[in-house]
Write a structure and sequence with these properties.
The complex is a heterodimer of chains A (581) and B (161). Chain A is of the alpha/beta class and 581 residues long. In chain A, strand 5 (170-171), helix 8 (180-190) and strand 6 (194-195) form a beta-alpha-beta unit. Classes of the chains: A alpha/beta (581), B alpha+beta (161).
Chain lengths: 581, 161
């Protein structure tokens, strides 16, 4: 491992940005990659979508992340070489490994895993002490409490303890809501920071029944924002939770709450922070997803920076967006603890003078784990480690999930569902969390849970006509490729096992999906009923949890078919730089 | 589900003092003729029309022009297509009626409100939407028609990131 450090130093020179303009900030050969040049008078650190990955992980960035309409060819819809070129990252460098899918397996051997909260703790403490505690702030964009077996059995309590030790001062949420109101409130009692959401309101029925709300007059369930003093300047952090919680997840988890983007309420709130509270800066801590944030930034005025998440896009530089009031910078800070966003600000009276942003890959081999955090993680994991450490399989291929249409993890889940539940077709949700396993790596139940641990894991088998199957595919495809980002929900296309089809992302809803075929090559018939297996249904289901089904399949020791998926043929996006395959 | 005339008038509507006349509808529900009219008599023919253009023609006998003075609030994606909260306010003067059209419903005209002189032109309702649809609000002011539209997506849901 001694040569590792040299690899890293050669590859450093990560792109930094001042007001969105690219500039190479460091002499890579001489500076450690975490020695940031001092800039400005305040620092905001941003984590998002860590999905409770306490230990370092492998995570392959997508090779398919298509943008259409105005988003075509624009960040975050660049992958592979197009990504490297856009952000000035050297091929085969550590940063190329962290930010793209290129040479993933080879580079994984050179640069190792990323993330891990003990490593993050070391990095966060260092970056905060560089500028002084009183001038720095650590915020989390949500999806902190979900993504592992441990977080699922502890209902996020583990991550609250970790967040407190890490020093997270404000957060917003998405999967946090899937534990239901009571668990959410219990966890927030223990959380030392603030949970912020300007866009979660009581339903009219709940308001009438006097349900708990932060502000009864507006019906806001949570505090919308907090004002922090950073070196004598007042910085407002406004929370924007995932706008589509009751649509993307079972409504039963949040029956009393209504969400949405709530642009108008946001504008009013920002105006009040500026006009009444006289803040010097407004930062939106957002779980909208990057495309939604880019549109929002063009329409809402008075926000200096949007620290974004949800879509798991690791974007090295902020994207400047003009609006009627000036310019708003939009960022997105990746996922799974791989990256830490560092926003250095020059705060002045009533405004932000200048900005520099870094999205630092958290190379765990370059960071000494913080002993207190390592001890806490060990203690939290201890009661479950033996149950989950049993090896269930060793596979002969790279397993990753991320990608617009498919990935080997979901092909494996679909194959397990079809085999164990004896179904012709399987559907598996297009989640963007879930870590990567290298070829030949022993898989444990803990690994299986890291791809499946949710609060509605029940599997189902049901009869669906070919027409219904097409409608479901069309509906979900529109969540991904609607030309208007406000109509997108984030997440990727539902994965289909035992089924191939052609997709035309640029078409309108109802016309994107064609040429549906079964595994045997026979065309899907609109009126014929097929046996379909799946999981993560928004309607209540009774089947075994998906992790048991996948675990059973893997333990059976079957030889996997060489090719698991039947494939999606793409049409009309041949030159799109969101495709690297 | 509750409506503005249901047993539990909601607090928000009470606080807004929403346009007193109202009423409301899920397109194909029976109406109380005397209270629902845009023009004094119950517009039975308009409520029977299938598509939006025919319903507007039957109700008003003319067409509307888009106006940024009509503020239509509706979710981009409905949390429940069975009860989609929508509202309209306007800065236009001399408003005499406000109507809602759900283009993809079996009958496009969903509700029509008569606004008496001196009433704040602000109405809120919940509409049932069969599927993803264009929603149109029309404000009749000083004898002319002004409109705002928004697409409301009704989705099967699931599979969020």
């Amino acid at each position: 491992m001694a040569i590792r450090r040299r690899d890293f130093l050669k590859g450093a020179g990560l792109a930094a940005a001042s007001l969105g303009l690219p500039q190479l900030a460091r002499g890579a050969e001489t500076a450690g990659i975490y020695d940031l040049e001092r800039f400005g008078n305040a620092r905001v650190l941003h984590l998002t979508d860590t999905h409770a990955q306490l230990n370092p992980v492998y995570f392959r960035e997508p090779s398919v992340n298509i943008g259409i309409g105005e988003m075509a060819g624009r960040p975050p819809h660049l992958v592979g070489r197009a990504f490297l070129e856009r952000f000035g990252i050297r091929p085969n460098s550590a940063d190329a490994y962290a930010f793209t899918c290129l040479e993933f397996e080879k580079s994984a051997g050179r640069f190792g895993k990323l993330g891990g909260f003990a490593h993050l703790k070391t990095l966060v403490d260092r970056l905060r002490s560089d500028v002084g505690e009183a001038r720095s702030l650590l915020v989390d964009g949500g999806d902190l409490w979900q993504g592992t077996g441990l977080a699922n059995v502890m209902q996020g309590r583990d991550m609250v303890e970790v967040a407190n030790l890490l020093g997270i001062e404000a957060m917003t949420g998405h999967w946090e809501f899937t534990y239901g109101e009571q668990v959410l409130r219990d966890n927030l009692e223990r959380f030392k920071g603030e949970f912020l959401a300007q866009n979660v309101f009581l339903t009219e029925e709940a308001a009438f029944n006097d349900a708990i709300a932060f502000d009864k007059a507006t019906g806001r369930v949570f505090k919308p924002s907090v004002i922090k003093d950073l070196g004598g300047h007042r910085v407002a952090i406004v929370g924007q939770a995932f706008p589509y919680v009751p649509i993307a997840h079972p409504k039963r988890f949040t029956p009393d709450w209504t969400f949405g983007i709530r642009e108008e309420e946001l504008q009013k709130h920002v105006d009040a922070l500026r006009g009444h509270d006289k803040v010097d800066a407004v930062i939106l801590l957002s779980h909208n997803g990057m495309d939604v944030d880019l549109k929002l930034a063009s329409r809402v005025t008075g926000i200096d920076v949007i620290l974004g998440g949800h879509t798991h896009d690791a974007v090295p530089q902020p994207i400047p967006v003009k609006n009627a009031g000036g310019t708003t910078l939009v960022t997105n800070a990746g996922s799974n603890g791989k990256f830490l966003g560092v926003l250095d600000l020059t705060l002045e009276k009533g405004k932000v003078g200048d900005v520099r942003y870094h999205l630092l890959p958290v190379y765990s081999e370059l960071l000494k784990p913080d002993p207190a955090m390592a001890e806490l993680i060990g203690r939290l994991r201890a009661p479950h480690v033996t149950d989950w450490s049993e090896k269930v399989a060793t596979l002969d291929r790279l397993l990753y999930r991320r990608g617009n249409f498919s990935g080997p993890v979901d092909e494996l889940i679909c194959t397990a569902l079809r085999t164990e539940l004896d179904a012709e077709i399987a559907l598996s949700p297009g989640f963007r969390w879930g870590v990567t396993a290298l070829s030949g790596q022993a898989l444990t139940m803990e690994d299986v849970l890291a791809e499946t641990a949710i609060t509605y894991p029940e599997t189902y088998v049901q009869a669906m006509t070919g027409g219904q199957i097409k409608d479901v595919l069309e509906d979900i495809c529109d969540n991904l490729f609607n030309a208007d980002p406000y109509y997108q929900q984030g997440g990727d296309m539902v994965r289909a096992g035992g089924l191939s089809y052609t997709c035309t992302p640029t078409a309108a809803i109802g016309s994107r999906i064609s040429d549906l075929k079964l595994g045997n090559g026979k065309a899907l018939s609109a009126n014929h009923r097929y046996k379909v297996a799946g999981w993560a249904s928004i309607n209540g289901q009774q089947g075994a949890p998906v992790w048991d089904v996948v675990g059973k399949y893997l333990r059976s020791g079957r030889t996997l078919p060489e090719r698991l998926g039947y494939g999606v043929t793409l049409k009309g996006v041949e030159d799109n730089p969101g495709i690297a395959e | 589900m509750t409506t503005t005339t249901g047993p539990h008038p909601t607090r928000r509507l009470l606080l807004q003092g929403a346009a007193s006349v109202a009423l409301l509808g899920l397109g194909n529900l029976p109406f109380a003729p005397a209270r629902a009219a845009a023009n004094d008599k119950y517009p039975e023919d308009a409520f029977k029309q299938k598509n939006e253009a025919d319903a507007i023609k039957a109700l008003y006998g003319k067409t509307a022009e888009p106006s940024d003075k009509v503020k239509l609030d509706a979710p981009e994606i409905a949390e429940n297509g069975g009860v989609v909260p929508i509202s309209v306010t306007t800065t236009l003067d001399k408003v005499t009626s406000i109507s809602f059209f759900v283009a993809e419903n079996p009958n496009a005209l969903a509700a029509s409100y008569r606004i008496p002189d001196g009433t704040m032109p602000s109405v809120a309702n919940r509409l049932k939407m069969a599927k993803t649809t264009k929603l149109t609000a029309i404000v009749e002011a000083d004898g002319k028609l002004y409109s705002a539209t928004k697409e409301v997506k009704v989705t099967v849901g699931g599979c969020g990131g």
